[in-house]
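FAQ

Q: What does a record look like?
A: Structure on top, sequence underneath. For example:
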């Protein structure tokens, strides 16, 4: 509606009407606009600003929301990361990369600006800001080397552009919708201690500035838009508040303006019982006490900036789902609810180390603890956990792994005398750890919580390296090896039945994460199909693995990423060479991905390798499987059975349509027949498009040698066409079909007639191709024989439970295969119901597009159910 009410005239809709009316009256009558009703603060995170559609949604949330309102925005999704990467490239002298990133970002901001603001002066003005910001960046590489050494302060300056431009665009977007709005520089409102990269807000000064700058705007009916994450140092230069800092900007403004509510719009359904990327069963907590939330945020719950709740004051804070903006999300406030749950949530800080000061001489000596923490404090190291055995023999502290060396040095320095007197043995450092915190107000006074926590870990053999409980009894923290952190969290989540909290609303809008094993032609085609925007709600391509390593993007690869990967592969390189790619073996890759608690993950095998054992492991780590690779199921029986066993044991699912008929619904038909109570007696099929084509050519009267060359020329054959002619490929398909019917033999027991005479099997390919014409007479004779009996030549697999045969046969008018032409495949099911007249499926059985579509079908089927 505000679209039609260009400026101040908004009619109060709900309860807080009085103050609003008063403000309007004062405005109209020219009186000073003093008291403003408590505003709502809306904060939009990067994920809520991922593209033009999301931006439009954010704008309409504000447009249709209550007034007064203040908006805080972070940079668009991924921008801060990109700018940091750019800073790195800049200092490494990677000028081409700097220009490329800057140009990409500029384009992205320009596109967003044009998407929300119609052509005209306002848009020109915005575009000029964008150009100026990035012009500065692009000029940097030509600066003298010295100037490019980036200090933390200049990095902050660089990063600031991300949120600053986002705020300008947001504000212009509101104005374009007829909502009076003004961009407000963060420097005008957020005062800090000036520490670059990690600035702490100065609350009193921020209160003063924010009120002075924002209240007049609010009382004028305007919606101020403030860039998050940024603040001013004493000289008025920009600094950042630490990663995720726009949450903090929002709560700061909430405090200064005595806001009615602070709404943090996120890409999750609310504050969850655990990080959903680690614990798939995580649930939305309807209400959290502000102390609990602060504890969780401080101890690594990535959903809020660690210090976001310090200035919370009395404002109620809501973590709400951007994609489903009518859902309530989580309320964070002074209330205490859900008392049945002594533990409400858990969180983890990865990348931790433990420093331990030990020594007999520490016994009873006062001040050791104080000196320990003094020494850490001097280095600016934040301590996540402290524990001292009551024997006072040792004292240890959990700290960020990256600061372990500095900590050790500082402690050794602090205790130099004691060490020389042998009162302190030394300072030990243990790396590769994670601190897990279990949080809930109800823990105080409920006995046995710690026991439940550790009992959950013991059966899995997860070793607890250190434990601490604050006297508030709000939090139990403990340290485990980082590699066991995910499992530890899942076990504790189960032990406290957190998946039932508040009715158990699932953490995410169920989607399916797909990982491709193999990124060849078929893999790339498939990847392109999966990342289409229309599928995004349902499927996410999160990773690709090849011989060189893997790439992994928990939030999904974009179509741009897929293009980049395809380009790499086309240049015979590995997906691991993409930005943030990892060089690793396939096993390691699967293990690394499995650590991430993907959402209903599917591994798609589009390799041609012997991947059986790998697939078993993937299944054990929770993956469903879709195979286009025939080998795992058509090799030794023991291997195929192991995979099936793993699938059954793990309650997982397996689809392999593309192994037999590419995109043809052969296995699908098989399943439906069986499910409807039919019994399959025999499956016969022409299962090779290559051989189908060859035989059609020969029947049309062309010599064998010429026909085969034609097939090669059209790309219908394997690199060595003898792989097709030998029947090995058809044999594999036949074994897969046979095993469906209960065939229990080994592949060697399958009688496959090779169309390559023995003498031709071992010679080099070139020689074979040269000598092809020698084979023509025999083919001509075969054809003549068949013709004389009015029959045709077909390469047919005949599959029954006891026996599988693959051979060249003559088929007569009664056979379904008579009419088959070209590269088509055909399969005939003889069943109890279709006995006299078999059920026939026919169509193209090879080719990139149909194969990829066949695989996608399997994937979608698993994703749908
Ligand atoms: P924003 O878009 O506001 O910057 P973030 O990406 O900072 O949002 O925070 C949301 C992310 O935090 C979620 O995608 C989720 O994966 C992660 N997360 C970690 N722990 C939790 C938790 N306990 N509840 C909700 N989300 C969590
Ligand atoms: N854009 C900043 C970051 O990515 C701040 C934020 O998102 O809150 O950390
Ligand atoms: Mg964030």
């Amino acid at each position: 509606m505000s679209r039609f009410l260009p400026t101040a005239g908004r009619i109060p809709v709900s309860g807080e009407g009085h103050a609003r009316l008063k403000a309007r009256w004062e405005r109209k009558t020219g009186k000073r606009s003093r008291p403003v009703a408590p505003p709502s603060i809306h904060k939009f995170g990067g994920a809520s600003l991922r593209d033009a559609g999301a931006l439009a949604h954010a704008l309409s949330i504000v447009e249709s929301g209550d007034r007064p309102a203040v908006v805080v925005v972070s940079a668009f999704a991924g921008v801060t990361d990109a700018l940091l990467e750019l800073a790195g490239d800049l200092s490494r002298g990677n000028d081409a990369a700097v220009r490329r990133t800057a140009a990409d970002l500029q384009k992205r901001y320009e596109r967003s600006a044009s998407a929300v603001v119609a052509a005209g002066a306002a848009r020109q003005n915005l575009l000029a800001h964008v150009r100026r910001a990035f012009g500065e960046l692009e000029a940097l590489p030509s600066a003298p080397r010295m100037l490019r050494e980036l200090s933390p302060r200049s990095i902050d300056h660089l990063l600031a552009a991300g949120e600053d431009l986002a705020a300008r665009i947001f504000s212009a977007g509101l104005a374009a919708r007829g909502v009076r709005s003004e961009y407000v520089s963060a420097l005008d409102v957020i005062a800090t201690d000036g520490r670059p990269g990690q600035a702490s807000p100065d609350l009193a000064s921020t209160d003063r500035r924010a009120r002075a700058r924002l209240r007049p705007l609010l009382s004028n009916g305007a919606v101020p838009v403030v860039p998050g994450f940024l603040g001013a140092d004493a000289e008025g230069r920009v600094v950042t508040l630490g990663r995720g800092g726009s949450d903090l900007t929002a709560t700061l403004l909430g405090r200064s303006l005595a806001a009615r509510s602070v709404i943090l719009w996120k890409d999750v359904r609310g504050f969850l019982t655990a990080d959903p990327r680690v614990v798939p069963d995580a649930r939305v907590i309807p209400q959290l006490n502000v102390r609990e939330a602060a504890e969780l945020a401080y101890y690594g719950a990535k959903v809020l900036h660690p210090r976001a709740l310090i200035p919370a004051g009395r404002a109620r804070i809501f973590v709400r789902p951007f994609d489903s903006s009518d859902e309530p999300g989580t309320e964070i406030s002074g209330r205490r609810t859900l008392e049945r749950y002594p533990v409400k949530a858990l969180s983890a800080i990865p990348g931790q180390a433990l420093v331990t000061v030990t020594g007999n001489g520490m016994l009873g000596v006062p001040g050791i603890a104080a000196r320990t923490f003094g020494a850490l404090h001097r280095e600016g190291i934040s301590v996540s956990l402290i524990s001292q055995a009551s024997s006072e023999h040792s004292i240890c502290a959990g700290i960020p792994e990256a600061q372990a060396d500095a900590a050790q040095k500082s402690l050794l320095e602090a205790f130099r005398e004691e060490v020389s007197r042998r009162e302190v043995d030394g300072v030990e450092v243990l790396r590769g750890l994670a601190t897990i915190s279990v949080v809930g107000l109800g823990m105080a006074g409920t006995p046995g919580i710690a026991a439940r926590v550790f009992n959950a870990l013991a059966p899995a053999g997860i070793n607890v390296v250190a434990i601490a409980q604050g006297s508030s009894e709000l939090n139990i923290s403990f340290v485990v090896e980082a590699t066991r952190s995910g499992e530890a969290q899942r076990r504790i989540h189960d032990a406290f039945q957190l998946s039932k909290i508040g009715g158990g609303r699932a953490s995410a809008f169920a989607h399916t994460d797909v990982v491709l094993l193999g990124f060849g032609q078929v893999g790339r085609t498939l990847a392109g199909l999966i990342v289409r925007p229309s599928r995004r709600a349902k499927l996410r391509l999160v990773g690709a693995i090849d011989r060189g390593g893997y790439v992994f993007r928990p939030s999904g690869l974009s179509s741009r990423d897929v293009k980049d990967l395809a380009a790499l592969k086309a240049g015979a390189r590995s997906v691991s060479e993409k930005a943030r790619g990892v060089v690793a073996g396939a096993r390691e890759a699967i293990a690394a991905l499995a650590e991430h608690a993907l959402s209903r993950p599917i591994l798609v095998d589009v390799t041609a390798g012997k991947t059986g054992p790998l697939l078993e492991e993937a299944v054990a780590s929770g993956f469903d499987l879709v195979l286009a690779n025939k080998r795992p199921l058509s090799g030794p029986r023991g291997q195929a059975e192991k995979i099936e066993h793993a699938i059954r044991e793990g309650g997982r699912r397996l689809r392999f349509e593309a192994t037999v008929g590419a995109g043809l619904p052969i296995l699908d038909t098989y399943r439906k027949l069986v499910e409807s109570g039919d019994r399959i007696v025999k499956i016969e099929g022409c299962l090779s498009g290559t051989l189908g084509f060859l035989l059609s050519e020969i029947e049309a009267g062309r010599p064998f040698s010429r026909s085969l060359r034609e097939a090669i020329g059209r790309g219908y054959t394997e690199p060595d066409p003898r792989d097709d002619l030998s029947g090995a490929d058809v044999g594999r398909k036949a074994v897969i079909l046979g095993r469906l019917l209960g065939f229990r033999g080994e592949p060697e027991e399958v009688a496959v007639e090779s169309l390559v005479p023995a003498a031709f099997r071992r010679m080099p390919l070139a020689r074979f191709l040269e000598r092809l014409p020698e084979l023509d007479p025999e083919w001509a004779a075969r054809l003549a024989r068949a013709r004389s009996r009015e029959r045709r030549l077909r390469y047919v697999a005949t599959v029954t439970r006891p026996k599988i045969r693959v051979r060249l046969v003559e088929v007569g008018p009664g056979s379904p295969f008579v009419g088959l032409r070209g590269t088509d495949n055909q399969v005939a099911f003889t069943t109890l119901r279709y006995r006299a007249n078999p059920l026939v499926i026919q169509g193209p059985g090879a080719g990139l597009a149909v194969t990829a579509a066949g695989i996608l079908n399997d994937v979608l089927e698993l994703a749908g159910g």
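Q: Is there anything notable about this one?
A: Residues 45-46, 74-75, 80, 162, 228-229, 243-247 surround aspartic acid (ligand 2) (CB under 6 Å).
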